[in-house]
Design a protein that fits this description.
Number of strands: 7
Distance between the termini: 18 Å
Number of domains: 2
Largest sheet: 4 strands, antiparallel
Strand order of the largest sheet: 1-2-3-4
Strand content: 25-35%
Order of helices and strands: EHHEEEEEEH
Helix content: 25-40%
Oligomer: single chain
Number of helices: 3
Length: 161
């Protein structure tokens, strides 16, 4: 049975090695300056420098966790399945293609992103939360061509669409 597969992953340009080098060099500089001020009697500066490095380490860790995130869409003649993966778990949601709707919701404010969902029978799954609005619009157009409207299942075109 023919199927189409789309894999969505966030852009994670910072490698683990790059993050470690960045963190180590910034920590050495910041804690070195803090230690110099502590030697002059301004010891609270060292505590703030340490707190800053702990916060930076936490932020880098959270940022690097995105490399394990993926959304895999598989479209067959009968189903649209969405597999959501992260480091801890993987879950799969299956929609009947004939009844599935692709919905792109515009935000109520310019400060919020649009939302792309696939919906059917009272269930919904958000797609591409890490994409830009432009990428999300392009994905919505592509999915609408492949999935069709409710009660409509266009033939699967196995090209790049």
């Amino acid at each position: 049975m023919p199927s189409l597969r789309i894999v969505l992953c966030p852009n994670c340009s910072l490698s683990l090695r790059g993050a470690l080098i960045f963190f180590a060099s910034l920590s050495a500089l910041t804690l070195g300056i803090g230690a110099a001020f502590a030697a002059l009697g301004f010891w609270p500066i060292l505590l703030f420098a340490l707190a800053e490095m702990l916060t930076l380490g936490w932020a880098l860790h959270e940022s690097l966790q995105r490399r394990f995130q993926a959304e895999i869409l598989t479209i067959t003649e009968s189903d649209v399945s969405v597999e959501l993966r992260d480091r801890r778990a993987s879950r799969r949601i299956v929609f009947q293609r004939h009844w599935a709707q692709i919905r792109l919701t515009c935000p109520s404010s310019r400060l919020h992103p649009s939302r792309l969902t696939i919906e059917s029978h009272g269930r919904a799954c958000e797609l591409g939360g890490f994409l830009t609005d432009e990428e999300r619009r392009g994905l919505a157009l592509r999915l609408r061509r492949m999935v069709g409207r409710v009660n409509e299942s266009p033939p699967l075109a196995l090209g790049h669409g």
